[in-house]
Q: What sequence folds into this?
């Protein structure tokens, strides 16, 4: 996880140092994500997640974005026992501007993610990981050239034994190196 965050920061810093105004704008951002996993009843299924991302916005076309995220430890009671779980994810998305207007855009996204969960239940620890196809729809509002605020809904198809899909809503801010 630390390597993913370091790589994303380095990627953003590298692009920021070589940006050419008008063609592309590198950015970094942070999102709050609420994710619901389709899991068995005894495990926590709703997670609050912090998402760090870095990317490049190609003016009027879309963006390429890398992300790394981690949830707080969530817990759920089931038949007198408590399960505690945490989600880790990393990956990349391609965002396409579906419709541009003066201070923002309607966005569509497709991407790859690697999702992992770690759950403790009845003294046992279970770890699961899977590859995910991420599909999303949302919008971005840019009140200034440097700042952008984005809201996205994503549906992910996950290749894992513990869960098959997830739904998430994210809201966050981006700082563009303009």
A:
């Amino acid at each position: 996880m630390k390597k993913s965050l370091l790589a994303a920061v380095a990627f953003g810093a590298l692009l920021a140092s070589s940006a050419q105004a008008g063609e592309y704008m590198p950015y970094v951002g942070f999102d709050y994500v609420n994710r619901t996993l389709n899991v068995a009843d005894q495990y926590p299924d709703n997670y609050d997640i912090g998402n760090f991302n870095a990317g490049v916005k190609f003016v009027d076309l879309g963006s390429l974005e890398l992300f790394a995220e981690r949830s707080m430890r969530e817990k759920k009671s089931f038949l007198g026992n408590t399960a505690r779980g945490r989600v880790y994810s990393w990956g990349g998305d391609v965002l396409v501007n579906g419709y541009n207007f003066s201070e923002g855009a309607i966005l569509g996204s497709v991407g790859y993610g690697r999702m992992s969960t770690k759950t403790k239940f009845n003294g046992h620890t279970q770890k699961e990981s899977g590859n995910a196809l991420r599909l999303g729809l949302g919008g971005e509002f840019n009140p200034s050239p440097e700042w952008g605020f984005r809201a996205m809904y994503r549906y992910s198809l996950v290749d894992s034994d513990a869960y098959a899909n997830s739904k998430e809503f994210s809201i966050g801010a981006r700082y563009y190196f303009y």
